């Protein structure tokens, strides 16, 4: 800011203040005329510059009414006039507020997550006048590792948006804080994501270190170097020379045939000593970071590093903590063989930082380290740290077969499938499901009129994230999503209530708007379905005669169908699960009614196959279940199959009720009722 003249007393002398005024040639204060012409006074700031906070020509009174351009100075001295913008070549200086507005307009951004990913702007930058600057003194830069190895890396944008959303949401919930955690700026650099947040928010985000996200473990630490510069920095000639020298040294230490990078005894390397890395205030850690930075620049992809470097030797470097060589695990995270012999590791604490890294390590040599004598049990712990470790200090601790078995055991196991469990009563369930699947494809209106009444309910749920084969094209859901009552997505009670269709008329209307379908034939393609049927009790009696309720059945069917996408008119194959609760119908209506009907649609995936025999058609399934019940009752009671069948018939094929009836009437049964005379 330019210096200002005195506010009171005689005007200062000097060539800058000898300009004549327009009235009589008398000296005036520095610059400009003493009187503004035109309608109204132009607003100026304290320095006399044009103030862009308010419009020119405003009729608003100045802040100090005693000191205006048209009011004489009571002291008798010449008035202090503002600098004129019309009689000098110096352009007017914009105010701080105007500069902020211009800068904000140039930066753009809407304040949403997408703009923060692009520009690093805080989410409230548009509306909040007290937003802290992104690069303010309280900003902290964190380094996050794990994005490249996550399942989200294949998403649009590389998964960065998903990672930032997770960090903000999870940090708030883990810390149990009420304010929102905000990431101000982010940048992907190699295998790391650098983020900037306030000091308070950074402390909450650091609590997520070693959390699992998208199939990987996140490693979060504070970045000592700050946010890296975007793009590759321009190196000085001396830096380029050092880089070339390090490349030359690395080339001499690389064994192409064995894919070994030999970094042992670096302190004895003549070239490194000549470069002065071990003299003065230089620390070996700085050298190692420089070597790893050069290695990072030699490979364009992670796969290229895996193919070129399988083994690394760091023997004889007096290392006592892996923190000194941390960049090795960052540059070569998929290393297979590592030699740390002849160093100074005393305990597991010196190796702790690598506990969740180097997950593919198969050989680790720690010979001639103090830890061998100071902590004899260190091997047991290291075996648990590195799941693929087979050779520890020259001793085999696992076989390749054991590694494979442990990896297989750690993978999630699908639930065992034992085929359909179809416990029908007088083939009621079989008849219902056979007719339903046929009429739903051909005549939904009459189907609803037959089986649904004013108390029946129907709802549909769209599962857009169901597992499916990678080569399966996921169809669109526009025809279904407006009806979806998926409770993980629809959390507002009023909307949930609106999407539960109650009564035959509403169900008919909803079915009319759903796309036409074609299901596989139930009789000839039964292998494309899994159908369960179980009796249930306690359903509301539509006749109102029973206070304890009536018996019914619950039927669940999993299968597939084809429909036509309304937008593209293409045929799409989908999977579905449908659960019916059926019971006796009201007097004067169909004997069977649907109490509730829940349909879930999802991307196509074949029904699970089992090691059990393929289920037989429904017509035979009911008879087979009854036969099994007869044999089980024979086994538990000792009765003959004929009398066991009589007992089950009398109990409406309710096994528990049949067993109770047998115990009540056991003394009255004739001797021939038992296979072995009592």
Secondary structure: elements and pairs:
Blueprint: H1 96-107, H2 113-119, E1 139-145, H3 160-174, E2 185-189, E3 192-198, H4 199-206, E4 212-213, E5 216-217, E6 219-222, H5 237-252, E7 254-255, E8 260-262, H6 270-274, H7 284-298, H8 302-308, E9 311-313, H9 326-331, E10 337-339, E11 363-365, H10 371-374, H11 378-385, E12 391-392, E13 395-396, H12 400-410, H13 428-442, H14 444-451, E14 457-463, H15 478-481, H16 493-498, E15 501-502, H17 504-513, E16 517-518, E17 530-539, E18 550-564, E19 571-584, E20 592-603, H18 618-637, H19 641-650, H20 655-665
Parallel strand pairs: 8-9, 9-10, 10-11, 11-12, 14-20
Antiparallel strand pairs: 1-3, 1-6, 2-3, 4-5, 7-8, 12-13, 14-15, 16-18, 17-18, 18-19, 19-20
Helix pairs in contact: 3-4, 5-7, 14-17, 18-19, 19-20
List keywords for this structure.
5 domains; elongated; alpha+beta; Leucine-rich repeat, LRR (right-handed beta-alpha superhelix); 678 residues
What would you say this structure looks like, in words?
- The protein is built from 20 helices and 20 strands.
- With 678 residues, it is of the alpha+beta class.
- It has five domains: 10-84, no CATH class; 108-222, Alpha-Beta Plaits, CATH 3.30.70.330; 237-410, Ribonuclease Inhibitor (Leucine-rich repeat, LRR (right-handed beta-alpha superhelix), Alpha-Beta Horseshoe); 428-609, Nuclear Transport Factor 2, Chain: A; 621-673, Orthogonal Bundle (Helicase, Ruva Protein, domain 3).
């Amino acid at each position: 800011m330019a210096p200002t003249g005195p506010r009171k007393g005689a005007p200062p002398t000097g060539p800058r203040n000898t300009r004549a005024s327009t009235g009589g040639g008398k000296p005036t204060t520095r610059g400009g005329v003493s009187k503004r012409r035109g309608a109204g006074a132009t607003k100026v700031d304290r320095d006399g510059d044009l103030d862009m906070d308010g419009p020119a020509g405003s009729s608003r009174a100045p802040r100090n009414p005693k000191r205006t351009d048209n009011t004489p100075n009571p002291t008798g001295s010449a008035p202090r006039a503002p600098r004129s913008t019309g009689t000098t070549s110096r352009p007017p200086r914009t105010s701080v507020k105007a500069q902020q507005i211009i800068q904000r307009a140039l930066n753009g951004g809407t304040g949403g997550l997408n703009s923060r990913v692009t520009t690093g702007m805080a989410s409230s930058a548009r509306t909040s006048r007290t937003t802290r600057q992104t690069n303010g003194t309280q900003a902290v830069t964190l380094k996050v590792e794990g994005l490249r190895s996550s399942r989200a890396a294949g998403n649009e944008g590389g998964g960065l948006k998903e990672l930032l959303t997770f960090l903000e949401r999870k940090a708030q919930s883990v810390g149990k804080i009420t304010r929102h955690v905000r990431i101000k700026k982010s940048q992907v650099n190699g295998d790391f994501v650098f983020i900037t947040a306030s000091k308070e928010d950074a402390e909450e985000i650091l609590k997520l270190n070693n959390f699992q996200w998208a199939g990987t473990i996140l490693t979060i630490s504070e970045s000592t170097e700050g946010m890296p510069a975007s793009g590759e920095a321009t190196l000085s000639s001396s830096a380029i020379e050092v880089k070339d020298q390090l490349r030359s040294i690395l080339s001499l230490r690389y064994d192409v045939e064995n894919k070994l990078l030999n970094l042992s005894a670096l302190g004895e390397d003549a070239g490194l000593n000549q470069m002065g890395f071990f003299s003065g205030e230089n620390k070996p850690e700085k050298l190692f970071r420089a070597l790893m930075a050069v290695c990072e620049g030699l490979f364009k992809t992670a796969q290229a590093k895996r193919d070129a470097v399988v083994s690394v030797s760091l023997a004889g470097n007096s290392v006592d903590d892996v923190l000194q060589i941390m960049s090795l695990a960052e540059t070569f995270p998929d290393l297979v063989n590592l030699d740390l012999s002849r160093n100074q590791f005393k305990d597991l604490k010196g190796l702790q930082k690598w506990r969740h890294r180097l997950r593919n390590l198969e050989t680790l040599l720690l010979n001639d380290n103090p830890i061998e004598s100071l902590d004899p049990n260190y091997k047991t712990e290291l075996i648990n740290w590195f799941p693929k470790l087979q050779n520890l200090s020259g001793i085999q601790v696992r076989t390749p077969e054991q590694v494979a078995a442990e990896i297989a055991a750690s993978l999630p196991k699908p639930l065992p499938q034992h085929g359909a469990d179809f416990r029908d009563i007088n083939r009621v369930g079989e008849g219902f499901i056979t007719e339903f699947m046929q009429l739903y494809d051909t005549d939904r209106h009459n189907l609803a009129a037959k089986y649904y009444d004013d108390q029946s309910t129907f709802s549909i749920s769209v599962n857009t994230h169901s597992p499916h084969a990678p080569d399966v094209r996921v169809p669109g859901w526009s025809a279904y999503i407006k009806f979806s009552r998926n409770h993980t997505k629809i959390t507002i009670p009023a909307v949930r209530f609106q999407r539960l269709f109650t009564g035959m008329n509403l169900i008919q209307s909803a079915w009319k708007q759903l796309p036409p379908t074609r299901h596989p034939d139930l009789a000839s393609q039964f292998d494309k379905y899994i159908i369960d049927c179980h009796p249930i009790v306690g359903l509301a009696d539509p006749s109102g005669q029973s206070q304890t309720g009536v018996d019914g059945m619950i039927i669940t069917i999993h299968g597939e169908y084809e429909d036509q996408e309304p937008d593209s008119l293409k045929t799409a194959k989908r999977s579905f699960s449908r659960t019916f609760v059926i019971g006796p119908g009201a007097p004067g209506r169909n004997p069977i009614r649907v109490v509730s009907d829940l349909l879930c649609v999802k991307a196509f995936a074949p029904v699970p196959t089992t090691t059990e025999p393929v289920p037989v058609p429904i017509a035979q399934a009911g008879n087979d279940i009854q036969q099994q019940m007869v044999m089980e009752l024979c086994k538990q009671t000792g009765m003959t199959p004929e009398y066991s069948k009589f007992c089950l018939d009398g109990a409406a094929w309710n096994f528990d009720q049949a067993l109770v009836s047998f115990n009540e009437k056991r003394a009255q049964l004739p001797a021939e009722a038992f296979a072995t005379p009592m």
